[in-house]
């Protein structure tokens, strides 16, 4: 009898090819987005401006007004996607994502209360407040889910349903706070609703340091996530200290979501959709899946924001609306499959 060995479906070469294609698509879309606006800028002029050319008006439009918005879209999309991938890996739950299990809503509420209580606070303090709120929201979901077996034993449907309820309650509390806020400050907090409208260099610089630290940290934890997916007993047998590994991975995942909320608000289902698409493309190994998830998240948010700007000019549709329209049906499909 002849045994034929089939080559593995997911390889490093395939993952590299997918990553390069996604990076090229993201770059092309970024150039298109940098030229989009009330005063359209051709792609050739955008490219020349990025390399130091262009006149004063073009440089102001592209570099000062549009580049921060594109940068926020890319960074926050990548951070939400990485956060979702890490939470799904640690909790071993396909329905885990920042906006579904209370992390995003907790961060948004904490950021709102922080800015209302301390309007003159330095910009660097906002991500820390959002991080505390993200942990608070996540802890509340774990508490109300009624499980005692640890994060690895949470039932997918129960976690999702409790998470949706907690996120809705925290979101309603945030809206109540915004309604009672002074007019000027309430307008300044509109970005928390899931939009990158009005993103400036200050907001970009607020998110950039967190992204530069946390995204590489997520990649460094990819092997740990693979081991945790083997189960607690096997991971312990391989020499992994399971609880510290879970805590470190969850800490990075929650911090990614909390910092991303301060840049773009709560972008629905990015943290759910991007990791699942990445698994379909490159498999479940986190060393391949995490970077592809980041690229997919960045591309998804940038595409949603660009579509929102181009669809009904001069009105702008928040990026979070488009990500929710795409992600919500997929979430319902996963919920039905996990029931």
Would you mind describing this structure in some detail?
The chain crosses the membrane at residues 67-87, 99-119, 125-145, 157-178, 245-278, 290-311, 317-335. It comes from Deinococcus humi. Its main location: membrane. The chain contains 14 helices and no strands. By secondary structure, it is an all-alpha fold. Helix 4 crosses helix 5 (125-144) and helix 5 crosses helix 11 (242-264). The longest helix is centred in the N-terminal third of the chain and has 36 residues, at 56-91.
Q: Keywords for this structure?
A:
transport; ABC transporter involved in vitamin B12 uptake, BtuC; mainly alpha; cell membrane; 339 residues; 14 helices; transmembrane; 73% helix
Describe the structure concisely for a colleague.
The protein is 73% helix and 0% strand. The chain contains 14 helices and no strands. It is globular.
Q: What global shape is seen? A: globular
Question: What is the strand tally?
Answer: 0
Tell me about the largest β-sheet: none
How far apart are the termini?
42 Å
* Total number of helices: 14
Which CATH architecture is right?
Answer: Orthogonal Bundle
The CATH homologous superfamily is called ABC transporter involved in vitamin B12 uptake, BtuC
CATH class: Mainly Alpha
Strand content: under 5%
| pLDDT averaged over residues | 83
Structural class: mainly alpha
Radius of gyration, taken over Cα atoms and rounded to an integer in Å: 20 Å
CATH topology title = ABC transporter involved in vitamin B12 uptake, BtuC
Low-confidence stretches: 148-152
Number of domains: 1
How would you spell out the order of helices and strands? HHHHHHHHHHHHHH
Helical percentage: over 70%
Protein name: Iron complex transport system permease protein
Keywords: Cell membrane, Membrane, Transmembrane, Transmembrane helix, Transport
Main location: membrane
Transmembrane segments: 67-87, 99-119, 125-145, 157-178, 245-278, 290-311, 317-335
